[in-house]
Every structure is written in structure tokens, then in C-alpha cells.
From TrEMBL:
Keywords: Signal. GO terms for cellular component: membrane. Residues 40-154 form the Neurotransmitter-gated ion-channel ligand-binding domain. Residues 1-18 form the signal peptide. Gene3D superfamilies: Neurotransmitter-gated ion-channel ligand-binding domain (2.70.170.10). GO terms for molecular function: extracellular ligand-gated monoatomic ion channel activity. Pfam families: Neur_chan_LBD. This is Neurotransmitter-gated ion-channel ligand-binding domain-containing protein. The keyword Lipid biosynthesis does not apply.
């Protein structure tokens, strides 16, 4: 019976070794220690050379992006030039498997980022047709918020100011 128990323990250890063979040393350390804090997760996702995260590469061959937006204010309406300005909130939802960190056993249910971190990851390039000028609201700082969940699901919220030209009648 002792030899059977030893064989079972050995087989279990070999299975664990096989499963974690392709995991970076950082992940191995975090798994041994317990839950990973936000800084450790960010360092692993964006700077761990074993992952090679590339912000210029699509997260998957097809990325479904859900967009929600609502108007906060319409201002500066000009009948003469048919222009108007609009302030709107825009939410974007997508999944980036390269940002999944559930294997790290996170201490919190999600990560929240600001504009600085968003510049290091892939984000949808949403644009508005017939827009003369679009800019992110940036007083006193750029109003962009990103939340990443352990499964790689992303949620972005931003406040934009648009100067649009209305459609002309033909």
C-alpha cells in the first residue's frame, strides 16, 4: 500500500510539473505565494518576456467590440455651417485573451487602469464618420478608464468632445 501511495504522489507531482512546465518563473512564484496583487499582475501581463504581449497585434482573429454611448450635451449648434459640438460618454467591451490573468489567482476581482496603462495594450480604434474634430476630455487629466477582468474581458469608458458636421440635404 505504501508503494501505491508513493506512486500516486509521484504521478501527481509529475502531472503538476507537466502542467506548469511552460509557465514563466514569475507565475510559478505567484502560484506558490498565494494571491497576486495588482502590480504583480500588471508586470506579468505587460512586461514578462515569456508572454511577449504586442499591443499592435489583434487579440484574436476576430474581436467583437460592443459599444455603448450616450450624449451628455449638445452645444455650439450653427445653422450657417451646419456644425455642432457634442460631449458624449462611450463604453467599449471586448475580450483580449492576452490579458487573462485568472491563472495568477488575483487578490481582487478586476484591475482598474488609467490612460497611461492603456497606451501599452490593444484597444479598439473607434472613429466617428463626418467628424471634424474629436478629442478626449483632459481636464485636469485624460478621462479614460479601463477595467480588465481575470478572464481577459475588458471594459473601457471615456468622455469625448466631438465637432461634427451634420448631413447635408441633397
Amino acid at each position: 500500500m505504501l508503494s501505491t501511495l508513493f506512486l500516486l504522489l509521484y504521478a501527481t507531482r509529475e502531472t503538476v510539473n507537466a502542467l506548469t512546465a511552460d509557465i514563466s518563473p514569475t507565475v510559478s512564484y505567484l502560484l506558490e505565494r498565494g494571491c497576486a496583487n495588482d502590480t504583480e499582475i500588471i508586470d506579468h501581463l505587460l512586461f514578462d518576456r515569456a508572454l511577449y504581449y504586442n499591443k499592435h497585434k489583434l487579440p484574436s482573429p476576430q474581436v467583437d467590440v460592443r459599444i455603448e454611448m450616450w450624449v451628455q450635451e449638445v452645444s455650439s449648434v450653427s445653422e450657417l455651417t451646419q456644425d455642432f459640438e457634442i460631449d458624449l460618454y462611450m463604453n467599449e467591451y471586448w475580450t483580449d485573451p492576452g490579458l487573462a490573468y485568472d491563472i495568477l489567482n488575483p487578490c481582487q476581482g478586476n484591475l482598474s487602469f488609467d490612460w497611461a496603462v492603456m497606451q501599452n495594450i490593444w484597444t479598439p480604434n473607434t472613429c466617428f464618420i463626418n467628424s471634424k474634430k474629436a478629442q478626449l476630455h483632459s481636464s485636469p487629466f485624460t478621462n479614460v478608464f479601463l477595467m480588465v477582468f481575470p478572464n481577459g474581458r475588458c471594459f473601457s469608458k471615456k468622455l469625448e468632445k466631438e465637432k461634427k458636421k451634420t448631413l447635408e440635404k441633397e
